[in-house]
Amino acid sequence: MNNDLEKLVYQVRRDILRMVHAVNSGHPGGSLGCVEFFVTLYRRILKYDKESDQNDMFILSNGHISPVYYSTLARNGYFDIKELGTFRKINSRLQGHPTNHDGLPGVNISSGSLGQGVSVGIGIALSKKINNDPSIVYVLTGDGELQEGQNWEAFMFASANKVDNIIVTVDYNGQQIDGSTEDVLDIGDLKLKFESFGWKVFEVEEGNSLNKIYDTLIIAKENSNKGKPIVILMKTVMGNGVDFMMHTHKWHGVAPNDEQLKIALNQNPETLGDY
C-alpha cells in the first residue's frame, strides 16, 4: 500500500509543478507541503459511496493550494486527468481558488477567502448531526489563516454545541505569504489555545510522513462523536519534495521558471503518467 501511495505522492508533486509553471501563476509551496495529507485522506480515510447520501465530506479552507486539491481529485477519478492542463485558464473549471458553480466533482464549496472554511465545515457537521448522518466532516486550514478572528468564534461555537463529528487539520508550516507566521503575527501556542477552547488536540510532528498522517487521522476518527470537536496540528514543510523550495515563504505564490521546473521534476520521477 505505502509503495503505491509514495508513487502517487511523486506524481501529485509533478502535477502541481507543471500546473503552476504552465500559467506562471499559482501556489506551489503550500500545495507541495500538503501532498502526503491529501494522498492519505483520499486513498485511505474518506468514506465515500456514490449510492449513499451519508458520505464523509472534505472542505479546503486555504483554497489557494488548489493545485494539490485538483491533482488529488483527478488522480482519484473525480474528473479526467487531462483537465489538469486547463488550470487557471479562461473558462476552466480549475480556477486558482476552488469554485463549485461549474459543478466540479469533489469540490463542495468555493474557497479562497481565508478564515471561512472552518465555519462552513462546522455548519455542515451540525447539519449532519441533526439529520442523524454518522459521517465525518474534514477541514484543512492553514496556520497563517488562523490569524482571522472568525475562526475563533467558530471554534468556540463548535465546542459549546458539542459538534464532535468534525476533524480540522491545521497545516502548521510556520510560513505565510509575507514571511514566517511568527514574524507576521505570532499565533502562539496553538495546542494550549485549542484545548482552552474545548477541542481535543492531536499533533503530527512529521506531517510529511504518510504513516504518521494515517495513524493520527485514524486516532482522530476513533475519538470523534465523543463530545468534543477534534483538531490535528500537522507540522509540514512548505515546498516539501523540491529542495530549493523547502523551508521558505518565498515559494508561497511563485511559479518555477523553465530551468527550475526541470530541476524540480528531476527530483520527482514520473510514476503514473503526466497529463
Features:
globular; alpha/beta; five-stranded parallel sheet; 40% helix; two-stranded antiparallel ribbon; 10 helices
Overall 3D geometry? globular
Secondary-structure element series: HHHEHHEHEEEHHEHEH
- Share of helix, binned: 25-40%
Strand numbers in spatial order across the main sheet: 1-2-3-7-6
Largest sheet: 5 strands, parallel
Describe the structure.
With 275 residues, this protein is an alpha/beta fold. It has helices at residues 2-23, 28-33, 35-45, 66-75, 117-130, 149-160, 181-185, 190-196, 210-222, 258-266, and strands at residues 57-60, 137-142, 166-171, 175-176, 179-180, 200-204, 230-234. The strands form two sheets. The protein has a five-stranded parallel sheet with strand order 1-2-3-7-6, sandwiched between helices. It has a two-stranded antiparallel sheet with strand order 4-5.
